[in-house]
Design goal:
five-stranded mixed beta sheet; 15 strands; 2,3-Dihydroxybiphenyl 1,2-Dioxygenase, domain 1
Length: 210
């Protein structure tokens, strides 16, 4: 018989939304300047100093989801102008249109829309921000988050998306699939250099909520 969720066993009420995401860097000031110039996400993205060893793929991506193809291109152009490196240029796929870019601090960002062409003139829309976490065992990760009060919105094999209030979304993906989607090698080790604002726990893949 499965144990009751944590909050039914005398713990505090669960936090099931993300208030902000902290990206750790040896130079948090430079990282903050990049994010403000590239994406202008304000306090949704904060930075802090870290010298923790890390190499290769850190096991997560951040995705900006928009309505317009032109916005995907504009976001990529802004990121490059601010010092980012293109991983995948804007291109159409069976799912829509997307691109990916690596920030100077090493974080990998994907830019996407389900559209394949613009239906209206480009606008200064605010993209939806989604945090995707790589889990070696997505089923275990899914159950962990469900036990912490999260509600599954979509479940497609190795992809799990949660119903999240607020501006920041959350999804789990297999490591190889997430890396392939972003266009990077799945190998990596060391610190994630990531802290997720909205809870106080560490998930099975070592992602810290703080």
């Amino acid at each position: 018989m499965r144990e009751a969720p944590l909050w039914d066993r005398g713990y505090r009420e669960p936090m099931t939304s993300i208030t902000h995401i902290t990206l750790e860097s040896p130079d948090p000031t430079a990282a903050a300047t990049f994010y403000e110039k590239a994406f202008g996400l304000g306090q949704l993205i904060t930075t802090s100093k870290s010298e923790e060893p890390t190499s290769g793929f850190r096991g997560f991506t951040l995705s900006l989801v928009t309505e317009q193809v032109a916005t995907v291109q504009a976001l990529l152009d802004a990121a490059v102008a601010a010092g980012g490196t293109v991983i995948k240029p804007v291109a159409k796929s069976m799912w829509g249109t997307g691109a990916s870019v690596q920030a100077p601090d090493g974080s990998v960002w994907t830019l996407a829309t389900s559209a394949k062409k613009d239906k209206e003139a480009a606008t200064a829309e605010v993209p939806k921000l989604v945090l995707l976490l790589a889990h070696e065992d997505v089923a275990v990760g899914k159950q962990f988050y469900v036990d912490h009060g999260f509600t599954v919105a979509k479940s497609f094999g190795k992809y799990i998306e949660f119903a999240m209030p607020g501006t920041i979304g959350l999804a789990l993906y297999s490591r190889k699939a997430l890396a392939k989607n972003a266009g990077v090698d799945p190998e990596g080790s060391g610190s994630h250099r990531l802290a997720i604002g909205g809870g106080s726990f560490t998930d099975p893949s070592g992602f810290v909520w703080a």
